[in-house]
Specification:
The protein has about 525 residues and is α+β, with helices and mostly antiparallel strands. The protein is about 35% helix and about 20% strand. Strands 1, 4, 5, 9, 12, 13 and 14 form a 7-stranded mixed β-sheet that branches. Strand 6 and strand 7 form a beta hairpin. Helix 4 runs parallel beside helix 10, helix 9 packs across helix 10 and helix 11 crosses helix 12.
């Protein structure tokens, strides 16, 4: 007696098979054999809601990632030894009056604010004879660099005393450098062949202590308002790293005579992020004058190129070997062009912050010098009057507040690991999926593709069925010329079900091949 025919297994491309075997939560309750039920609709609504919330969270996290947020971390680090910074000093007075000659006044009159008819009065104010007997003949050319070198204040004369960490130092420890104040001097520049100085302690007496004579008697009389005119008396100081040139006219601080100024420093190491997280410059500087990028190097390089393009010359303090501007070019082109560039043109010189830089925070305090008790002693020691000591002498003490430094660092607030972690967390929370679940989905799509697309082409290439397909052969049927004993029988399966279709297909296929 035959049993009912068994149901054929469903192919892997069937959605119910995928839903029953997938690790994606909820699918096994939605894709079931049979019709639509309320239970399946509720599961479908719950799954759709969870999937929508998940996709919304993913979109929010991706948007957050592409905003490239960052955080700034401030930390204080101790160090057993620290490198001492470079100290650049300039006298507020650019040219000494004792070094000015009539020929200098002839050429420099425009920069000094002296009219042609005031030459004699100006020379008289300088303490020089105004009448030369009509024998003055100005030079055909004028070397601005030579004039600055000759007329600027000399460190050998200004420096009265120098000590670093209690040990004597002198002019040989200062390197000459040119700025808009003329000839200036840098202590611990690292450019004189000497190693950089270090300090092992913080506090007064563990840094640089210098006594300077600003030589007010050598200050030029103010005859008019020009870019070279200075109303101040004292020195300009900048504390900076050895990797960056001084930009003292804009970044320096003043120290007045008649005071001892204490400058307490703290080193700050700043690390910024390059684009797209930040806006610092991580590429090397494209300059023929500087090898290390810094904001000051960028600005000096930019100003130099700007003057070379507009005036075909450079100022004395600018790097390079190009022709130095004449006093007339200074007045008519260089000074106005540089003032315009600094004050109004914000597009030509755009200097980004370097990704790594060192700066020094400062705290200043002052006491009066000399005291009444020391005025006579100092006057006798330096062979000056007490009034001269009070008007010209200053003492400056620069030191580290403590043997530590501040590290200010920008860090990425949201990286790709955080993005993947958030997406994975939301995926597990709302739809119970993982990376392997995604592989299951791709595997199911492959099965669908194989069954629907590849199967279509395979069926299309199969041979056509013959007319005998799906026909059964009765047990007592005979063909012409065939005896009943030799009539072909349909094979019988163990269950008693007659298998005729596959045999007839096989017969048709053999006939076709023959």
């Amino acid at each position: 007696m035959g049993s009912p025919e068994e149901e054929a297994p469903r192919p892997p491309s069937d959605i119910t098979v995928f839903g029953a075997n997938s690790s994606l939560h909820g699918l096994s309750h939605i894709f079931l054999p049979g019709g639509v039920t309320i239970r399946r609709l509720l599961w479908a609504a719950a799954f759709s809601s969870s999937l929508s919330i998940f996709l919304y969270q993913v979109a929010d996290r991706v948007i957050e990632y592409y905003q490239y947020p960052h955080v700034t971390i401030l930390d204080e680090m101790d160090s057993p030894v620290m490198f001492f910074p470079a100290i650049t000093i300039c006298n507020y007075n650019s040219y000494r009056k004792s070094q000015i000659r009539r020929n200098d006044v002839f050429w420099m009159a425009g920069l000094l604010g002296v009219e042609q008819g005031d030459f004699d009065d100006f020379l008289a104010a300088l303490g020089q004879p105004a009448d030369d007997g009509g024998k003055f003949f100005p030079s055909k050319t004028f070397n601005m660099l030579e004039f600055v070198q000759r007329s600027s204040h000399n460190i050998d004369e200004m420096l009265l005393d120098c000590k670093y960490r209690g040990k004597d130092c002198g002019p040989e420890n200062f390197t000459t450098i040119y700025t808009r104040y003329g000839k200036c001097y840098t202590f611990n520049s690292g450019l004189d062949g000497n190693p950089l100085l270090t300090t092992l302690k913080g506090g007064t007496g563990n840094g640089l202590e210098i006594m300077l004579d600003i030589q007010q008697d050598e200050y030029l009389p103010v005859w008019g308002e020009t870019d070279e005119t200075s109303y101040e008396a004292g020195i300009k100081v900048q504390i900076h790293s050895q990797d960056e040139p001084p930009f003292i006219d804009q970044l320096g601080f003043g120290v007045a005579p008649g005071f001892q100024t204490f400058v307490s420093c703290q080193q700050q190491l700043l690390q910024y992020l390059p684009p797209p997280w930040g806006d610092c410059k991580s590429t090397p500087i494209d300059s023929e004058y500087f090898s290390t990028y810094s904001i000051t190097a960028c600005r000096i390089d930019c100003e130099t190129r700007y003057l070379l393009e507009n005036c075909n010359c450079r100022m004395v303090h600018m790097p390079g070997t190009s022709t130095v501007c004449t006093p007339e070019q200074y007045k008519d082109c260089a000074d106005p062009a540089l003032d315009f560039l600094v004050e109004k043109d914000n597009d030509y010189c755009v200097c980004q912050t370097p990704c790594n830089m060192t700066r020094y925070g400062k705290e200043l305090s002052m006491v009066k010098i000399p005291s009444k008790a020391s005025a006579k002693y100092l006057a006798k020691k330096f062979n000056k009057t007490e009034q001269y000591i009070g008007e010209n002498i200053l003492v400056m003490d620069i030191f580290f507040e403590a043997l530590n430094y501040e590290k200010i660092e920008q860090k990425k607030a949201y990286e790709i690991a955080g993005l993947l972690g958030d997406i994975g967390g939301q995926m597990g929370l709302f739809i119970g999926a993982s990376v392997l679940t995604i592989l299951e989905i791709f595997d199911y799509l492959y099965e669908v593709f194989k069954d629907k697309v590849l199967g279509y082409f395979i069926r299309k290439k199969r041979p056509q069925r013959c007319q005998s397909d799906n026909l059964e052969f009765p047990e007592n049927q005979t063909s012409p010329g065939v005896t009943p004993n030799h009539a072909p029988r349909a094979p019988v399966t163990p269950s008693g079900v007659t298998r005729t279709v596959s045999d007839s297909r096989r017969t048709c296929y053999l006939v076709t091949r023959l």
